[in-house]
Predict the structure.
Amino acid sequence: MFNLLASALKVPPSSAVSLTLADMSGTRHVVAIINQKGGVGKTTTTANLGAALARSGLRTCLVDLDPQAHLSLHFGVRPQEDDATVYDLLLEAGSNAADVAIEVEKGLDIIPAETDLAAVEADLAGLPDKQDRLRQALAAAGDQWDAVLIDCPPSLGVLTLNALAASTEVFVPMQAHFLALQGVGKLLETVGLICGSVNPDLRVAGIVLCMHESQTTLAREVVEDLEAFLESCREQPVPWSQCRVLSPPVRRNIKLAEAPSFGQSILAYDSTSRGALDYLAVAESVIQLWRPPAAEVEVKIDASASEGADTIG
Ligand SMILES: Nc1ncnc2c1ncn2[C@@H]1O[C@H](COP(=O)(O)OP(=O)(O)OP(=O)(O)O)[C@@H](O)[C@H]1O
Ligand SMILES: [Mg+2]
């Protein structure tokens, strides 16, 4: 069992990444980073996985959809009264996400929030498309980004519904202990219900293990249980049937907690820290996950080769 788990958690070789990026052109992934449990690593994962994807060459946008505005603070973004935020995107029908995005690191944009976002639930009450505003605003931005990561609040209100309606997939950060495992079970059920109503194409694609202590027996057992549970769902008609535990687990690393005080991602703050290395490796796993099956890539290459032949001819 241990060997199985070790091979499942193996980091893919970095040479695979450049191949994958070429294969990915034209696709866009919108990921809701969600867990209704507080303090599990949602914001830390959104910030640093996003920064790692941007370093890999993907044009990446982070959306701060939490009234705590921790993601914005992580990058030292403190919107003033007149500055547009995600609140304006949600409130004004027909708005464009690209108009509100700010570049915080090379290739990495953020759509910031401030605490007034807490009022949005009441402000949108009664509007028929209140769950669809973020999706519309991102759609208006066209192909501006290759990847969009949405940092969700630790609750399942209208903000999280907007995230789920806008997303192509869900990543769940969690800590490997028993109660967290129960929480993930409940969350998967909820996502299943929402898929049925607002977003039938939504898939739970990955679990990110955060603040991981691999040397403890409890953490090892919870990961084994989680893997076994996901395996048992492979043939079932549920939105998490293809869900993977993304490798490697992100180890507890104090640098990850320090980086927000400097308004930087872990890659800008300390690129050699264990936190930076872990999130870079998780980004490689994500890019692998997004890589189309080999057959599709071959078809694409064949198609472009014959297009070239036509032009020359
Ligand atoms: N791998 C890690 N090592 C050390 N500290 C971490 C790690 N991941 C997250 N933290 C710290 O744990 C705390 C909670 O993380 P984070 O804010 O990302 O959780 P969250 O799920 O977004 O919380 P909330 O539900 O309140 O939005 C933060 O202080 C963060 O810096
Ligand atoms: Mg958070």
User: Anything to note?
Assistant: Residues 38-44, 66, 68, 70, 154, 210-211, 250, 252-253, 256-257 surround adenosine-5'-triphosphate (ligand 1) (CB under 6 Å). The longest strand covers residues 203-209. The mean pLDDT is 87. Residues 2-312 form a domain with the Rossmann fold fold (CATH 3.40.50.300).
